[in-house]
Design goal:
Distance between the termini: 27 Å
Helix content: over 70%
Shape: globular
Number of domains: 2
Radius of gyration: 16 Å
């Protein structure tokens, strides 16, 4: 079951963040395209619309200029790639916490700058800032729990998508 969930999450990430078409995402993660399509439909039934999340990831709403969109889009792709590297690295928990805190801080600043007056982006920015503060709290007070926190945070991403897309 955990293996299927990992593949499900990987396909969602490829489709939403990397904007790979669903068939290619399925093939990339060695899942039948029909299975990926079924997962997408089931997620939508549960309130996690991958298409809306994909659109939101571009942040093309609210009159943001093309340059802001491109900068945010590039940063988001780099952020996602770095998160993937961190997830599979052998970095010590405290160093990983430091890197995660810096990444979260950068994400919050970029989203705030790109979001301008868009209320949904502003709300997402507050949520991301809260997560950043909480990850710093965990890193400082319970560094041994940081890896589990990161795993849970990845699973929580679709919930944030439901709220802000």
């Amino acid at each position: 079951m955990a293996r299927n969930q990992d593949k499900h999450d990987a396909i969602r990430r490829s489709f939403v963040i990397d904007r790979v078409n669903l068939k290619a995402a399925a093939e990339l993660h060695k899942v039948a395209p029909a299975t990926a399509a079924r997962w997408k439909v089931k997620a939508k039934e549960k309130g996690d619309c991958w298409d809306k999340a994909r659109s939101a990831s571009r942040l093309a709403q609210g009159g943001i200029g093309d340059l802001s969109i491109q900068v945010l889009e590039d940063f988001t792709l780099q952020y996602s790639a770095l998160m993937e590297v961190l997830k599979h690295s052998e970095i010590e928990p405290l160093e990983k916490a430091s890197i995660l805190t810096k990444l979260a801080d950068s994400y919050v600043k970029i989203t705030k700058a790109a979001g301008g007056g868009d209320n949904q982006i502003a709300r997402l920015s507050v949520a991301m800032e809260t997560l950043k503060l909480f990850s710093g709290f965990i890193a400082e007070r319970s560094p041994h729990m940081l890896e589990q926190f990161v795993l849970l945070l990845e699973q929580f991403a679709p919930e944030l998508s439901k709220q802000y897309s």
